[in-house]
Specification:
Elements: E1 2-6, H1 11-21, E2 27-32, E3 48-49, H2 52-56, E4 66-70, H3 76-82, E5 88-91, H4 98-103, H5 105-126, E6 130-136, H6 158-177, E7 180-186, E8 188-190, H7 200-209, E9 214-217, E10 223-224, E11 226-228, H8 229-239, E12 248-252, E13 258-259, H9 260-273, E14 280-283, H10 298-304, H11 312-322
Parallel strand pairs: 1-2, 1-5, 2-4, 3-4, 5-6, 6-7, 7-12, 8-11, 9-14
Antiparallel strand pairs: 10-13
Helix pairs in contact: 1-8, 3-5, 5-6, 7-9, 9-11
Bound molecules: nicotinamide-adenine-dinucleotide.
């Protein structure tokens, strides 16, 4: 299986690359414009960086075991070149923050919608049959809980709207062009490799290790569904190969509802156990954030044969350790 990963130097992309390369028969090609991610994320992997000109002069379809090309998913010519010889595309590259999308809705839409369309077009032109799209629970927005795939959608942010649009194009490319597109709506992903993320677990650990007070938006009663990155990566891996899932959308999360207050308590006990005294304070709620969010993941269990394995205390412990606040700290 030869897999192209867009956003391959990001949090999830680098973890996915490592997991796929654990199979000696697998090959990966990473694409990233390095706007957020860094090749350092893959420093432990045997990945060769190839200059775009050198790549373009290779014969079509040549595929190294593990390679990385700097480029932008908004560049349609570049995408057409890099999909040559690929069996499946995992499209992760995106502007991935809710607050950023509220500040710059057009920029987020351009990358998340046009970038996705470019990748789908490249897949269509090259005859690639499998396309996995990183959607988000933010595509659903306000909904009855738990969220499942049949609930009506009502995004609360341009980010959520852009992910919903991406799901729409995936459905269209499945029906119009027979590409087995699979949209995975990730819950709140956390874990090793998330040092640059502004999402709540990474932010809390950074604040705690800097000796700062943990800052909770609102009263801490808002809920999220936290999924450990390696569990998510396994769902992506399955989505690239399980048959009969073309055109489908899946909620991928732990399937449990955790308040931000509970998350902070869990983290405080992990960090205090490591000798970090941590305080919590409450600030103004943030626009674009859903009050409740957690997922019914039974469809992914049934059709992908997937289930999460790492619970929140264990996942937080592993994450804190990666941040350098492990057992000995
Ligand atoms: N992390 C989460 O909790 C979460 C939750 C739901 C959905 N997602 C989605 O999963 C995907 C990956 O998220 P992540 O947490 O790894 O984010 P990330 O920001 O760590 O990684 C995204 C990568 O894409 C790259 N990128 C951005 N714009 C690009 C462009 N135009 N061309 C090429 N590369 C570009 C960035 O440099 C970065 O390395 C995103 O689509 C995100 O929206 C993430």
């Amino acid at each position: 299986m030869r897999t192209l990963i867009t956003g391959g130097c990001g949090f999830i992309g680098s973890r996915l690359a490592a997991a796929l390369l654990a199979d000696p028969s697998a090959s990966v090609r990473l694409v990233d414009d390095l706007s957020v991610g860094s090749p350092d994320a893959n420093a432990d992997l045997p990945i060769a960086e190839i200059a775009r000109d050198d790549f373009a002069s290779r014969s079509n379809g040549d595929f190294g075991r593990a390679e990385f090309i700097v480029g932008d998913v908004l560049d349609a010519d570049f995408m057409a070149e890099v999909v040559e010889g690929v069996d499946a595309i995992v499209h992760l590259a995106a502007e991935s923050g809710v607050p950023q999308s509220i500040e710059r809705p057009v920029a987020a839409t351009r990358v998340n919608v046009m970038g996705t369309l470019n990748c789908l077009e490249a897949a269509r032109a090259a005859g690639i049959r499998r396309f996995v799209f990183a959607s988000s629970s933010a595509a659903v927005g306000n909904s009855e809980m738990p969220v499942h795939e049949r609930r009506p959608t009502s995004p609360l942010s341009p980010y959520g709207a852009s992910k919903l649009a991406g799901e729409g194009y995936c459905a269209a490319y499945f029906h119009a062009y027979d590409i087995d597109t699979v949209a995975l709506r990730f819950g709140n992903v956390y874990g090793p490799g998330s040092g640059h993320k502004t999402s709540v677990v990474a932010k809390f650990i950074r604040q705690a290790t800097a000796g700062e007070t943990l800052e909770i938006y609102g009263d801490g009663s808002q809920t999220r569904d936290f999924i450990y990155v390696d569990d998510l990566v396994e769902a992506i891996r399955l989505a690239t190969r399980v048959e009969g899932v073309g055109g489908e959308v899946f909620q991928i999360a732990a399937g449990s509802e955790t308040t931000i207050g509970e998350l902070a308590d869990n983290l405080v006990s992990v960090l205090n156990g490591c000798g970090h005294g941590v305080q919590v304070r409450y600030t103004e709620p943030r626009r674009g954030d859903a009050q409740r969010n957690y997922s019914d993941t039974s469809k992914a269990r049934e059709m992908l044969g997937w289930q999460p394995r790492v619970d929140l205390p264990e996942g937080l412990r592993r994450t804190a350790e990666w941040f350098g606040v492990g057992e000995e700290a």
